[in-house]
Amino acid sequence: KKEGKKDFIRQIIAGDLAKGKHETTITRFPPEPNGFLHIGHARAICLNFGLAQENPGARCHLRFDDTNPVKEDTKYVEAIQEDIKWLGYDWGEHLYFASDYFDYFYDCAVQLIKDGKAYVDLQSPEEMKAGRGNVKEAGTNSPYRDTSVEENLELFEKMKNGEIGEGKAVLRAKIDMESPNMNMRDPALYRILHAHHHRTGDKWKIYPMYDFAHPLEDAKECITHSLCSLEFEDHRPLYDWVVQNCPTPSEPRQIEFSRLNLTYTVMSKRKLLDLVNEGIVAGWDDPRMPTLSGMRRRGYAPESIRTFIEGRGITKFNSNTDFALLEADVRAHLNANADRRMAVLEPLKLVIDNWEEGRVEEMECMNNPENPEAGTRKVPLGKEVYIERDDFMEEAPKKYFRLAPGQAIRLRGGYILNYVSHEKDPETGEVTQVHVEYIPGTIGQNAPEGIKCKAAVHWVSVDHAVDAEIRLYDRLFTEENPDGFEGGFMKCLNPESLNVIKGAKVEPILAEAGKEYSCQFERVGYFCTDKEDHEQGEKIVFNRTVELKAAKF
Ligand code: ATP
Ligand code: MG
Ligand code: MG
Fold this sequence. Notes:
Layout: H1 8-19, E1 26-29, H2 39-54, E2 59-64, H3 74-87, E3 95-97, H4 102-114, E4 118-121, H5 125-132, H6 149-160, E5 170-173, E6 188-192, E7 206-208, H7 210-220, E8 225-229, H8 236-245, E9 253-257, E10 260-262, H9 269-277, H10 292-298, H11 302-312, E11 319-321, H12 323-337, E12 339-341, E13 343-344, E14 347-352, E15 361-366, E16 376-381, E17 384-388, E18 408-411, E19 416-424, E20 431-439, E21 453-457, E22 460-461, E23 466-473, E24 498-506, E25 518-521, E26 525-529, E27 541-546
Parallel strand pairs: 1-2, 2-3, 8-9, 10-11, 12-25, 14-20, 18-21, 23-27
Antiparallel strand pairs: 4-5, 5-6, 6-7, 13-24, 14-17, 15-16, 17-22, 18-19, 19-20, 23-24, 25-26, 26-27
Bound molecules: adenosine-5'-triphosphate and magnesium ion (2 copies).
Adenosine-5'-triphosphate binds near residues 31, 41, 43, 260 and 268.
């Protein structure tokens, strides 16, 4: 399907398949259900599920890595599934929960103890930390390292039964306190947590550590290639140690790739949760969030997210990707696919003096000039029309080509209108309406001699206009790298990231639009109806997806 050079992971996999090491590939996407998925996760999803589509017989598991009960919740389990499907991927029947393996993890731990490869450490967390040493200094053995197998089995049983308090003991692997790799200095395998788990309830008082559980989960599911982000590179020796020293049905291989980061946003779930909890955004799916559900609500097409992810490739080097690149892919997709519609955000009324009272004429407008097959639609025109307030100026400077005294304009897809006069509010000085005359025979024709008309503006007939609420979204942060901002990411929020326009006027066909309908408002930008608050024919609510052109910085 895909041409060109394969990324390094696909090269490794092609090699493994060619050598006959595996018959096919089994990958997994293993989110922890402690938040919604973000655009960074999309890289891991596209890679793992993409591989399942590329190789015959291959599959990708969706596995919830729910071994830390404190922050996990069923509502996240549901949202994650919805987002993966929306992005265009399917795990079929291969849905798994790490919590289903709790007995297996426990049995593996008992086996390690019996083999003399794990022990219960009763030191305080501080003592354990001191004993680990640091990058320059070797660690020292715990006084509990040589406790007998029987004693360890008994203590571990007590941990399991809730007879030892939180933080009072951990089960540690007996590896090497002098290893240059800190992860190998007798890492913790189990800790005590008297917490309620979203699936196993209060059954367990001990929970496995990620580094112990993850390789066992992979091995149990016969994952061939366990693909994870770069921060786990140093954990790979421990991953392999667990697989080698525990009774596992297979030996998966871990390969790391770089995380996706984006400018002008934060990506860690903890920080995104802060934004939700502090009420900075309306929820995980707020259109300003870098979450998949936020981007969906903003009007980003799943195709454009996949295009963006593919365009960045799979590498070994972490970097910060320009948000503008994502927006460019979103825009390109909409340019090719979205209907053109007219909406006036800040309406100014024009009265066509020479138009008969009650006359309505239908203008034929192209739905998408990029795609003639999208056809045309009829847009009604009556005696009064709304145009954008800034498409008229009382005193037009030299380069202003729109409506002004002495200057005509064209209604997009319609007639040329010549300026006649305008009225103002005597108190505020604001222009209240403009009188114009239409020039018959000018639809699709040039202006007659002596008429200056250089611009075609969008418009909506007053009698046919539909009221709409329009939410103009912008970046959530003013800084390119909010994570690195002095004082923290909460200190560089963009105060103008949302601007709600209540009195906008849109063309009548939009009253029929359902939820999540995307279109271009001509000359304004790309918009979509809100997934939650828009009600067809009742309450019209559009979100700005992206501007027509990239902003200059
Ligand atoms: P966060 O740090 O944002 O909370 P996480 O890595 O803790 O994310 P998980 O739910 O554990 O989130 O992630 C599931 C999978 O998605 C993991 O394999 C992880 O490596 C991958 N992943 C998460 N964030 C990114 C990212 N920014 N780029 C690429 N892959 C990512
Ligand atoms: Mg995590
Ligand atoms: Mg093994």
